Amino acid sequence: MEDSPEAAVAQSASDGQTSDMAPLAVGTVVGSYVIVRQLGRHAGRMQYLARVASDDDDITRPHPHEPHLLLTSAPAGELAAVHTVESLQLRHPRLLALRDFFTQDGRDYAVSDVPGDTWPIPPQLPLTAEEALAVGVIIGEAVLFLHGRGVTHGQLSTTTIVIAVNGVFLGNIEDATVIQEQPETAIQRDANQLAMTLGDFAAGATGNPVLQAAVTAIAAKGHAGGYERVEDVMADCLRALPDGLPPLSDEAASAPFTIQLGRATSVGMVRQQNQDALGVLVMEIFDDQPEAGPGGIFLVADGMGGEAQGEVASRIAARIIVAEVARRFLGPAARATASDAPRDSEAKDDAATTMHLDTIASITEAFRAANARIRNLARRLEQATGTTATALMLFAHEVVIGHVGDSRAYLCRGGEAHQITHDHSLVQRLIDMGHYRPNEMEYNMPRNYLYRSLGQADDLEVDTRVIKTGAGDTFMICSDGLWDLVSSDEIRAILSSDRTPQECAEELVRRANAAGGYDNSTALVVRFVAR
């Protein structure tokens, strides 16, 4: 295994390409940038770590707080196509975004932002099968973003997917191209390259044989050109990844079920305005197909009370996300399952499994559509505004969770309640880092400081999760005004009781108010009951 950043990047020269360009020495200034480190050669091009140069630059002086940049150098004209991609201003949390492009002394230079202030450490290859599957989901979402803007990457490999201390990112955007002809072919190429790359990442790994077999199967399908879309690669990765939840019985995983709902909201005992919003859309079709399942979208949004028009932001999130999911997913899904062919002539599980439905893409793009509207609101107000949003999208026996902020989703299965979202709050980040314990009284940490919310920035990263579900499962989505005052044990006891979903929702909100009601509180309870 290589043990330096230079070696980690230099390994990408495995295609045998060479370049006659002499490497630039550390301290060289090109354009408005100074070379900090040589990273090696990538596909015949030189790559460097750089930063913005200053008039009194001293390369020997440490610059710990200045952001690092990835600078790629190629013979003049080789990166000419980057002008088209640069004009699109592609910005996504998982892309090493293009920052600048220029030509100097017979060389093209492309400059990309590097996330964080530390250059990625070399990945510990091989990745475990579980890590490789996770990379497939994360990078797949970034590639979907490109496809949605008419761009194909075309160079997906272990050398263009950057594994960093602070995440996984997609580089080499300077080689991306605008899709002009035969878009299906370009999209298929990206999908199959991603699948093969996952196999390369996990090649030689030991561990869970089931997960390893899943990665091998995905890679083999990619080598055979079997994927048509990136969504299908992501779906195979998500279905193989363990969800950390109690297993669903075979009967529950296949039995037809219907939906029972309960909802309750309160302004609380202190606030004057309720900035929480609920969104619900249920699609149930009862026909001659006993295995057909219901579909729907269920959402709770909590407007940020310390900012302007929080109630408007949450209203936008609830309405736009529900409407976009209906337009992008639920309507097409209903049409896709309609058939005038005899049912016994089709594969039994076609309607409920593959179907090439855009589950992840649908909910992610719905969140981003809402985020764009809220950002426009903030610009009109000339003030910050925002909201959290946690949504559950159901189709047949599969639930997709979309989540931004500190509202929460819980799953009650087998008498136990499990939190299935992760708070995007400063407190939770400090807890994750081991720097904070909520029960330590010497800390006076503002609980509601969010580092991710709708309306906070033009780029929005949405947490997604896929969970197999069935009869007997109960999901609950709530705002922080509820979970902050109602303990996990109380939530478990109420959701696993004999109460109806409506009674559960009302009791949860009542207990939040009884405990002080310092904030708005909302509960949306969704239970799946065997027919």
Structure, described:
- This protein has a six-stranded antiparallel beta sheet with strand order 1-2-3-4-6-5. It has a five-stranded antiparallel beta sheet with strand order 11-20-19-16-17. Strands 12-13-14-15-18 form a five-stranded antiparallel beta sheet, with helices on one face.
- The model is unreliable at about 1-20 and about 340-355 (pLDDT under 50).
- The chain is globular, with a radius of gyration of 25 Å.
- The chain is α+β, with helices and mostly antiparallel strands.
- The protein has helices spanning about 5-10, 80-85, 130-150, 185-200, 210-225, 230-240, 250-255, 310-335, 360-380, 425-430, 480-485, 490-495, 500-515, and strands spanning about 30, 35-40, 45-50, 70-75, 100-105, 105-115, 150, 160-165, 165-170, 175-180, 255-265, 275-285, 295-300, 390-395, 400-405, 410-415, 415-420, 465-470, 475-480, 520-530.
- α3 runs parallel beside α5 and α12 (about 490-495) packs antiparallel against α13.
- About 30% of the residues lie in helices and about 25% in strands.
- The protein has 13 helices and 20 strands.
Write the layout of secondary structure elements.
Blueprint: H1 5-10, E1 29-30, E2 33-42, E3 45-52, E4 69-75, H2 82-87, E5 98-104, E6 107-113, H3 129-148, E7 151-152, E8 161-164, E9 167-170, E10 177-178, H4 183-202, H5 209-223, H6 230-240, H7 250-254, E11 257-266, E12 276-283, E13 295-302, H8 310-337, H9 359-381, E14 389-395, E15 398-404, E16 408-413, E17 416-419, H10 426-432, E18 463-468, E19 474-478, H11 480-483, H12 488-495, H13 501-514, E20 521-530
Antiparallel strand pairs: 1-2, 2-3, 3-4, 4-6, 5-6, 7-10, 8-9, 11-20, 12-13, 13-14, 14-15, 15-18, 16-17, 16-19, 19-20
Helix pairs in contact: 3-4, 3-5, 3-6, 4-5, 4-6, 5-6, 8-9, 12-13
